[in-house]
Amino acid sequence: MTIGRLDANAVISEFPATRPDSCPFDPDRAYAELRANDPVSLVRCPAGMDAWLVSRYQDIREVLSDQRLSSRAAGSDHMLPSYEEHDPIPGFITQLDGEEHARLRRLLVGEFTVRRMEALRPYIQRITDEHIDAMLAGTGADLVRDFALPIPSMVICEMLGVPYADHEMFQLASEVLMSFDATDADRAEADHRLESYLGALIGQRLIEPRDDLLSRLIARGNGTDRPLAVGELATLAKLVLVAGHDSTANMIALSMLLLLENPDRTAALRADPSLIDAAVEELLRYLSVIQFGLIRYATEDVTVGDVEVKSGEWIIAATPSGNRDESMFPDPDALDFDRRGRRHLAFGFGAHACIGQQLARIEMRIALSTLLRRIPDLRLATPPKESDFKRNNIVYGLQKMRVTW
Ligand code: HEM
């Protein structure tokens, strides 16, 4: 047994963050080796902290459901070279623990039920068709700008009550917040811009409530013994706005690229459109776009696999590795729409599991199946360049994707 960092033989490696050039859809090849031989291994993160990297599926589920592990640096602060520990930020749902977290989650979950999301289907189908009509009026398009990004952006604007006319501002600010290449000053500026924008909208809803999520969050908060402060609500709304469009947009475009590179899988999907639900689950597993895993902090001593992690040490649940764990997914590097069940870790697991997962699923199913049906000869106009891949972002994806038909 390894005893925390006290083990003199502990080897500290660099955090594995390099995708193979030969396959931009696969995680770092080091994960396969780690799962086999060193499933809870010590790594040094770009943020400077050392962390226990957990690479096996079952261990990851245990980590993500362990209440003794804090989310104080989630989503991927371990990748941020300028990371500094700070007090919890009110409203920052992904980084809060215990009752502070549960209080915000209770306010949100009722908005994202399967029933509510299913009711959005006609709207999602209509905007998907409209964007395909607009693309078909020309001879080529950027699938990111003209399709993958606008659809989830419009849906989350509609839900929240944010004017879609402001999409350029919030998409650009989100992109800066998601990128590890942005400077600290740019990141702070983008953060401030989004929060003051949402703060102003919240101010309007306080005076004149509407039938939207912002107004309902105000009303629901007021119905509790701790109403939400405007700043707290602006931070929460910012996370919903950013998480609500960015990851799904990246999944739609990257999935399409993967499908175009796997014509046999695409043909199977066209021949049997009922495969779409299973295909979306498999694409989520295979692509694992939250590419650097989920970081946690031990507030007590815990045992993970064979390792005793000490209070005060960091742990990374390497979800991209867990999603390729051969003990859970036979032949894990194959894209196989016949896998059954939704056991992948793409939406996380446990107390912080993705609130928007049903929405993301419906958006992906409608966007991908409608695109395949309505543009059967869709193909790449030019292959993506190396610089088009978001290798240094919290969420993996494509900056642009030129297509034609
Ligand atoms: C394919 C698209 C998506 C992926 C891959 C994804 C992935 C994730 C993951 C892995 C987490 C867990 C983070 C952690 O444990 O530290 C998460 C949390 C979250 N997601 Fe998503 N997400 C997606 C779409 C969405 C959408 C459409 C929304 C809409 C609002 C959303 C809202 C959230 C929120 C609010 C949380 C925080 C939950 C909490 O801390 O309790 N996500 N997401």
Written overview of the protein:
The chain has helices at 30-37, 57-64, 98-109, 114-118, 121-136, 143-148, 150-160, 167-178, 184-207, 213-222, 230-260, 263-271, 276-287, 319-322, 357-374, and strands at residues 2-3, 13-14, 40-44, 50-54, 69-70, 140-142, 294-298, 302-304, 307-309, 314-317, 379-380, 402-404. The protein has 405 residues and is an alpha/beta fold. The protein has a single domain (2-404), classed as Cytochrome P450 (Cytochrome p450, Orthogonal Bundle). The strands form three sheets. It has a six-stranded mixed sheet with strand order 2-3-4-10-7-5, with helices on one face. It has a three-stranded mixed sheet with strand order 1-9-8. It is globular, with a radius of gyration of 21 Å. The chain binds protoporphyrin IX containing FE. Protoporphyrin IX containing FE is lined by residues 71, 74-75, 93-94, 105, 239-240, 243-244, 247-248, 251, 289-290, 294, 346-348, 352, 354-356, 359-360.
Attribute tags:
six-stranded mixed β-sheet, Cytochrome P450, monooxygenase activity, globular, alpha/beta, binds protoporphyrin IX containing FE, Cyt_P450_CS, 405 residues, oxidoreductase, three-stranded mixed β-sheet, Cytochrome p450
Outline of this structure?
This protein is of the alpha/beta class and 405 residues long. It is built from 15 helices and 12 strands. It has one domain: Orthogonal Bundle (Cytochrome p450).
Tell the overall outline.
globular
Secondary-structure element string = EEHEEHEHHHEHHHHHHHHEEEEHHEE
- Helix proportion range: 40-55%
Q: Tally the helices: what do you get?
A: 15
Return the structural class.
alpha/beta
The strand count comes to 12
Please give the alpha-carbon distance between the first and last residues. Answer: 58 Å
> If you average the pLDDT, what whole number results?
95
Provide the list of bound ligands, each named once. protoporphyrin IX containing FE
- What is the CATH class designation? Mainly Alpha
| Main sheet overview | 6 strands, mixed
Strand arrangement within the widest β-sheet reads 2-3-4-10-7-5
The fraction of residues assigned to DSSP E strands is: 5-15%
Number of domains: 1
- Taking all Cα atoms into account, the compactness measure Rg is 21 Å
